[in-house]
Amino acid sequence: ERVGFAIVGLGRLALEEILPAFGESKKARPVALVSGSPEKMKVAAAQYGIDPASCYDYAGFDRIRDNPAVKAVYVVLPNGMHREYVERAARAGKHVLCEKPMATGSADAQAMVDACAAAGVKLMVAYRIQYEAYNLRLASFVRQQTFGRLVGMSAINVQTVAENGAQQWRHKRALSGGGSLPDIGLYCLNTARFLTGEEPVEIFASQYSPPNDPRYAEVEETVSFTLRFPSNLLVNCFTSYGARDDKHQRLNFEQATVDMPNAYLYRGQRMTVIQRQGNATGQTELVLQQPNQFAEELDHLAECVIGNQRPRTPGEEGVQDHKLMEAIYRAAESGQTVRLPSVEKPDAFR
Ligand code: NAD
Question: What ipTM does the predicted assembly reach?
Fold first, then answer.
């Protein structure tokens, strides 16, 4: 029996990636929809075979408590709405998958963790890269020291936004919590933590927004930040809404460079290992099976629900990323290196 999901919010990600991904999932199925638009919901319900009686508007969402087919709720709303819908889902007794960034700040994120714990439901943050085949292989290279010590890493996540994009929720602080950093720079931060299993102990950062551009009246355009990890790994991250699309990740190991030109895309990752081969430099392109990362993510929560296990990317991971993003902004504002207490991670998180 597959685990039934309710999808809350029928925006781009929900309609273009998540609902289609159920077709490749083995353990999850969509059984309910929540939207403010009856027309959109009608079309999606018909397309995915969802009972019209399991379609809710936002005001009626709490009635989901009485729908036994719904075991988990996937919140795919603007960031500033995540807390409310995660808490309402928890109160309805449903497990929760929440889109990234988890919230608009660490206090809200912690409140969401507490609410789910109090309700006895699981809370997972949708860090899809942690379920993506190439990045998973990369994590094994780092942790097993396949190419020796990881000395440096650079991570870029840049996405061009429309010139008239100022009205989009991503440019309103109350709904977004920030600009490029929480939206896409988060991939650089979360992936570096995932690959190493370590927590940064030092952060240096700088940010810029073009003046007089309405898109950047409330949120930032560009952030550059450097993380130092306890192993002395140095990670350089760059995120922006202002330049050409780029999602490049490069890892400098003692004995190899591993290059991923489109590390954070929804699909189509590639990985090249550059190494000395005899007296020459050789390049090997690794080709892996690549299941749909959204389907893998849905199946992970479904498996956790079936087997009563803790998700690999629980709410606490989201809280930690928010604390670190707050430290990045502090570093950028002060121009000073922010030092963080070293955190011993339990084995389960390494
Ligand atoms: P979107 O703007 O396309 O969709 C947002 C949905 O929320 C829309 O259907 C909109 O109608 C609805 N909504 C309800 N109340 C709203 C309000 N007050 N203001 C604006 N919209 C409102 O956004 P999206 O790109 O689908 O992003 C949704 C969430 O998913 C965000 O948290 C985002 O960060 C996350 N996301 C994650 C990924 C990923 O790869 N994991 C990719 C894109 C977006």
Answer: 0.99
